[in-house]
Amino acid sequence: EWIETEDPPGQYISISGGDHPGVCECKPCTKVFKKHGHAGTEMIFVNKVAAELEKDYPDMPVYASAYSFTQWAPRDVKMHKNVMVHYCPIHLCYFHAFDECDYNVKQRHPLTSIKEWLRIAPTVNIWYYALSPPDDMLYPYPNINSLSRNFKLFRDVGVNGFTHQADAGHTNMAGGVTELQGYLLSKLMWDPDYDVQNGI
Fold first, then answer.
1. Other residues' Cβ atoms within 10 Å of the Cβ of residue 132
2. The whole model's pTM is what?
3. Is the omega angle on the peptide bond into residue 8 within 30 degrees of 0, that is, cis?
4. What pLDDT score was predicted for residue 2?
């Protein structure tokens, strides 16, 4: 009903977990979690909806977020052909590129996680966090030097697209860096080889 009554019609449908820390702990859910994991359980559901939706809307992508407790790709699920995974690399060090500092490389393994999603999903996009974590209150947020390398890494592993989340509403606190950051992010989304340092 939502697709048919929306004016203009939506370009995709989102079936994603909420922005919250917990999951259902009832016995049936816990049993499924033990078998498929949190990501596997959610993606099985996403696949079923995607398969039903495809019957009437074969060109409608189904958006699913790999975020928080679903950040790691399930081992026993392959995503339906019309599912678009949005990988959200949270709890990382954005001061450095994803392959540079020990925290990213040895503890969080974001590139490994992205590759796993690319193994099971036809389309993987990145939700790129370009804003200061809420508990840091660190402005301006010095992540500009890592931008070029990260976007090249995403391109080279096969990522299809990007959404970036930045501090657009905190311009005064950020000392004006948000405008520069937005400009650079736009340039890099068009061309990952753009040189952030030299502006070429």
1. 20
2. 0.86
3. yes
4. 80
Residue 84 bridge partners (DSSP): 63, 123
**Among candidate residues 109, 75, 104, 72, the one with its CA nearest the CA of residue 87:** 72
Q: Tens of pLDDT along 106-161?
A: 998 999 999 999 999 999 999 988 776 655 555 566 677 788 899 999 999 999 99
SS3 49: helix
User: What is the spatial distance between Cα 188 and Cα 66, in angstroms, rounded to a whole number?
Assistant: 22
Coil, helix or strand for 181? helix
Side-chain-side CA neighbours of residue 157 (13 Å): 23
Q: Edge-to-edge strand order for the sheet containing 83-87? A: 13-14, 62-66, 83-87, 123-130, 161-166
